[in-house]
Amino acid sequence: MAELTMRSPGVSAREIDLTSPTNIQPSGIPAGIIGTATRGPAFVPVTFATYRDFAAKFGDTDGEKFGPLAVSEWLRNAQSVTYMRVLGIGDGEKRTTTGNNAGKVTRAGFVVGDEQPQDSGLVARNPFAVIAGVPGRMHFLGCFMSESAGSTIFSDAGIQPNAKAAPIIRAVIMAASGVVPMLSSSLIASTQPSNTVAATAAGPVGFNTGSVDISVGKQEFTLLLNGHKNTTQYPNVLTASFDPTAPNYFLNVLNSNPYLLEDAGLCVYTHYDIHSALAVVTGTGVIAATAPVVPTSYEPLAFILTSSMTRNSGSAAVPNFESFEDRFRTAVSPYVVSQKYGGTPKNLFRIHALDDGTYINKKIKISIRNISKSSSDLVPFGTFDVLVRDFTDNDENPVILEQFLSVNLNPSSERYIAKIIGDQHVYFDFDKNSDGQKLVLDGNYPNVSKLIRVEVDSSVEDNEVPEDVLPAGHRGIYHLVTSGSAILSNGSMAVGNMLVAGQGSALLRAVEPAVPFRKNVTYGVEPRLTVSKNLYWGTMFERQESLTEPNKTLVQNTTIESFTQYFPKFHTSFQNPWVGDNEGTSDSNGIIYDADRFNNNAFSLENLSVRTGSNGIADPKEWASASYVRYGGVSANDTNKTRAFNFNTDLADLTAKSFAKFTFFLQGGFDGVRIFDEKSTKLLNESIIDEINDVGRGGSDGPTVKVYEKALTIIGEKSSVDIKLLAIPGIRHSYITDQAISKVEERFDALFIMDIDGRDSLNFVVTSSIQDNNVSNTAVAFASRGLDTSFAAAYYPDQIMIDPKTQTNVQVPPSVVVLGAFSLNDSLAHPWFAPAGFARGALTTVVETSVNLTRNNLDTLYDADINPITAFPGTGPIVWGQKTLLATQSALDRVNVRRLMIELRREVREIANRLIFEPNRESTLAKFEGLVRPRLQRIQTLQGITRFKVKIDTSTTTQADVENNTIRGVIYVQPTKSTEFISLDFVVSNAGASI
């Protein structure tokens, strides 16, 4: 809604629609659930009333993750749940501050080329490579390229300032331990790679430069994977093409699944597609003519390079490309900037994702449109729209996820961008000492958007920018530091690869390509051009396949996804591989650090060349001639009537305003996990088992262990989180579940619903659905833990349920469905009723149990204080027990009694809180007792207790207590016990006998 300014007496009327659905507010004390999720904030407990609200924040069920399924089960009969998503945090401590490791997070993320843990044993080595092979490295695969006729893809970006070919990085590749990828120098008979490459070997077969078949439709090269031995599944000689349209394009040939790193020998991390219409593979001006090679179409144009330093090391000038040892990160956009003032734009704001981790990298993009100058001197600041769009949409068919219309940069306005979108950031501050880590809230305005928040530059917040300021473009994105005299190593050049004199360092200029920007807003070719007002300037998300018709295709350009990928930027002791937010940084040793100037990746509408009409304003009929000049500096041409787009004059024209819009992306989301191991990536219980059993993986300090330890620490803080139940679905290891028990005992107001390790007939922990389950071994192993607490209840076995979203059968840990039974119990009755049996323990969403339990099994489990889930003839699965883990016989060895006591404590505490700081005298004691008694009478009426007695008077609170500002009282309760055992005698008598 635009701001309304009345300058003279009158009546105004506005229409305000309040009929849209309103969010249901949570009610009651929530269950607390810790788990993974597709999206959402990490380590921030969030409370919801409905599953729809949960799914909007953390993502829907996916037939795989247990946490969302548990939420779905609980909310079927409840209206309040608190969920905490987890991601990788390493050791959970602040970053290191000294030595070469300064900036990294211990045990977070991964190091490229490390030996990956193996399921077969404790020895971590690549089973598909030579023993004692050299550690893997980060490699930069590329080729020499020149612009196609009429193309300016490189020269506009400053990559190809002369006629010479430029070394262009086409992919960033991670090699497995023991594997050294090299290039073949001749494709006539590809040299076989070495199968004995080791740390002591003379060296791998192949070269850092290799031949490319540049015959029409080829662009083929051969990669040799030295040391890779899994050739039955993945060959160690790979012939691929640099042509994105070729069937054997390298992205189709080389593995890009990080889980298959060792199986395949390598993994493509990022790739950069360049269509042959824009640039060709050639060595013009760099590679000298060589002796003829048969066939003559082969030229030494490919390269594969590593850092000039040893693996996993860096210096003040050379980045460490292998260390990704960072905790999770959140995607962020470059700063949106203003029109130029004194030749320089001003930072205005940038967009942060609300979702932590990698999910959002490839899910949304941002468009700025409807940029309007102020219509009156009395209304400072112009307005603009911010659109959040689907990453994969196109400008002709936009998918707008959210839109914020007519926002401005005036902090005093109701339409101020920070107020309309929101700028609050809730996060757990890991970069403090352990005792200082806590949840933090930054920002002034609640987040209205469900997807993004805005960070406004301090100059805008402090009213230090001109009032006519408007968004005109954005800063350059974060980019790789690869080009420079000392960054990459040109290693061993292929025999016959003769460089032109003076071009010996040509390979050292290798850079990633520029971000593709839209060149014009037309379809067709001269003289039949059609102008489209739908097209946005800025990042071009569609793949360009034609010079004459750059907007012809609507095919998604997957290269943009690579630009969103995270690279390390946390090092403080040496040069980072990835730099940005650094406008004005000087060049050094031939390296362009400044993200604005690197590849001319900064974007501005003021770089548009437009044709003007007789009034000197951009001619609304001539937008077919408008073009984007990437390098800027558009000079006025009076003959052609062209000049740069002018914010002061051109925005006055409605047509010009409709074309003044641009799109950009967010980048850098990171999960902080070891991406090559599925168990570690997904933070599964199996990863905890691996870590605990292997000190090499961290033992009890392992990264997955620390994830759940930290989550329990946060959710265990009563002042921050209020819960009545706790579950960590799927996390069964005793190291974590013991800590969960300790946390609920410390809280004294919640019950832990625990999943336990199943055991097979060989007494191994069950980690796979193909293993058998042995009830006796499971019970014995659990009993041996010697647990003694009334604040936890264990359930067994796993259950098969239907995922409500995917409609597939999923085997889930018992806590998922038991939460459903608890919520059913509380909706039908009260916490002090037993959440078990046919009435309140029926599991209607369960298809079957994973283990069919016999009567003997039920007895065995119950004797070990494990609550069985079973099915009887003609019934579905039912929770058939309600024991806590209290070792001694007591009323508190039942779930309903423990929950009764939790409820009583909560009720009395709420009353007591209202009496804090009241005078400590008899009347206050009487008031206290008088307030408590009705609460207990209510619970007695509702069958929670049989009898009770309250005594809060001068006999319980002595004068000494008064002197110490203390009130003491005694409350006696006799819980109502549930019926669990029924014994009947059937007596058969003779006829006529009395009955």
> What oligomerization state is this entry in?
single chain
**Beta-strand percentage?**
15-25%
SS-derived structural category: alpha+beta
Average predicted confidence as pLDDT: 90
Estimate the helix proportion, in percent.
10-25%
Which sequence of strands runs across the widest sheet?
Answer: 2-3-1-36-37-38-42-43
- Count the DSSP helices: 19
pLDDT < 50 stretches: 1-8, 16-20
What is the radius of gyration computed over CA atoms, rounded to a whole number of angstroms? 34 Å
- Shape descriptor: globular
Main sheet record: 8 strands, mixed
How many domains, as an integer? 4
Query: Quick one: how many beta strands?
Result: 45
Straight-line distance between termini:
84 Å
Report what the structure shows.
The chain is an alpha+beta fold and 995 residues long. The protein folds into four domains: 31-86 and 683-884, Rossmann fold; 110-323 and 478-516 and 557-582, no CATH class; 330-477, no CATH class; 897-975, no CATH class. 17% of the residues lie in helices and 21% in strands. The strands form twelve sheets. Strands 2-3-1-36-37-38-42-43 form an eight-stranded mixed beta sheet, sandwiched between helices. It starts with 30 loop residues before the first strand and ends in a 20-residue tail after the last strand. Residues 1-8 and 16-20 have low confidence and may be disordered.
List keywords for this structure.
seven-stranded antiparallel beta sheet; 4 domains; 17% helix; single chain; 995 residues; alpha+beta
